[in-house]
Amino acid sequence: MTDVVIAKRFCGPKNSGNGGYCAGLFAQMIEGPSAVMLKAPPPLDTPIALTRTDNGVEARCAGALVAVAEPATVAVDPPALPDDPAVAAAHDAYLADTGGEHLIPFCFVCGNRRAPGDGLRIFTGPAPDSSVNADFWTPAQDLAGKDGLVSPEFLWAALDCPTAFALRLWPRLTLLGRQAVEIHRRPAPGERLIAAAWPVGSDGRKHFADAVLLDADRNIIAAANTLWIEIKDEAMLAQFKADRENA
Q: What is the largest CA-CA distance in the chain?
């Protein structure tokens, strides 16, 4: 058993951890491709115990189940991915579209109120004439692990929020339910990457999207399959909006 703590810097919603970042931490005890099912909002600044099970890992806080991680298979079939000018246009479209309307502007990954060097600021807007959302991302030095490469949890994070925006469901509220990730190569800080995501289907309140991280040669270095759950809780949506206005 080991404990992890989600620092406030790595929030998604104001009072809980970014789903992708947390999922990457919860999956750290599993070798190879893995999936994390989030069962509750990961709390901030609180020890979360990771315990091995017969099938994988459970993450619990004060005994309550937060997430389950297990080995998984990840498969993606990307559509035509945008070229660099289209990625730049997608970035600009994100900022134009979200403006003051971003529901979670303080999110570690996609928050437009996070300062450079603090949040990842991955702004995956819709690429022109495409079903793909995309943006450039250059990981900073402080995201590196002891081996000098970007730590896995930040790659999970970078694959998370792009899939939410690829659903193009705003103003409907969705929250990450499951993320499966395969990392082919961990990049070094300073590498110029592209995060790209696209929708793959819906089933009632369940919405599915996939994502990839591409290197400078447009090789896939990491891929993800995600499940997003549409939330009908008006009180939760109102709280998110209040948090945004008070941030």
A: 49
Range of the domain at 148: 84-246
For residue 20, which of 155, 195, 193 has the smallest C-alpha distance? 155
Domain stops at, among 71, 97, 118: 71
19-26 vs 152-167: helix crossing angle, rounded to 10: 140
pLDDT given at position 151: 98
Question: How far from the centroid of its chain's Cα atoms is residue 188's Cα?
Answer: 19
Flag whether the pTM goes above 0.90.
Answer: yes
Do residues 130 and 219 share a domain?
Answer: yes
* CA angle, residues 206, 125, 153, in degrees to nearest 5: 65
* Residue 193, pLDDT score: 98
- Tokens 């081996």 locate to 147
Q: Are residues 58 and 118 in the same domain?
A: no
- The total number of residues shown for the chain amounts to 247
pLDDT-derived band at 100, boundaries 50, 70, 90: low
Angle (CA) 8 148 2, round 5°? 50
Residue 107 near residue 18, CB atoms below 8 Å: yes
146 and 59 in a single domain? The answer is: no
- CA pair distance 1, 58, nearest whole angstrom: 10
CA dist., res. 243 & res. 166, Å (int) = 24
Residue 99 reports pLDDT greater than 60: no
Q: Are 67 and 140 in a shared domain? A: no
Q: Is 23 left (phi over 0), alpha (psi -120 to 50) or beta?
A: alpha
71, 30 contact by CB (below 8 A): yes
